[in-house]
Amino acid sequence: MERQENKVNTNNISGELTFAEKVIKKIIGYAMDNIDGLLTINGGFFSNVAEKLVNTNNVTTGINAEVGKKQVAVDMDVVVEYGKDSRHIYDEIKRLISKDVSEMTHLDVVEVNVNVVDIKTQEEYEEESETVQDKVTSAGKTTGHYISQQTSKATQNINEDVENIQENREPRVE
User: Where are the annotated segments for Disordered (predicted)?
Assistant: First the structure.
């Protein structure tokens, strides 16, 4: 079935296009993914606890956005990598937020407030990023390996006992 494109004049259709705060936060979260020197967006105490308990893919954590009909304002606390230029990171954050939000929504980003709440080395960040879930998974693997070893030993002992029993059951006389 071939689809026909109808030329419809949409200028006479009323309505408005709006964006939920969550949508803007997601756009910003995805934009922040590849900024060199930005380790994380800090979501405050409770979200940090939640992230340590469960690995989340929630890119909106720690981003506060005020969304109007034509403009957006953003606030966030961040952790930057030790040795990196914080001013350059801030400029890159503003550039990417403005570019992505504008291209996807046609809203103007009028304000971006970034508060650097901590500076860490890459090693410190990775070490602290290990979650409880990671620890449980690691403990599960260790336990599974131990149980596998014990099962192998028990199976080997049983097989040896079966062989001994079979040897003892062979007829002694013809």
Answer: 127-174
pTM (two decimals) = 0.64
Best CA proximity match to 42, nearest among 73, 77, 72, 71: 77
**How do residues 12-29 score in pLDDT, each as one tens digit?**
889 999 999 999 999 998
Q: Which residues 6+ apart lie within 8 Å of 129 measured at CB?
A: none
Neighbours of 129 (CB within 10 A): 13
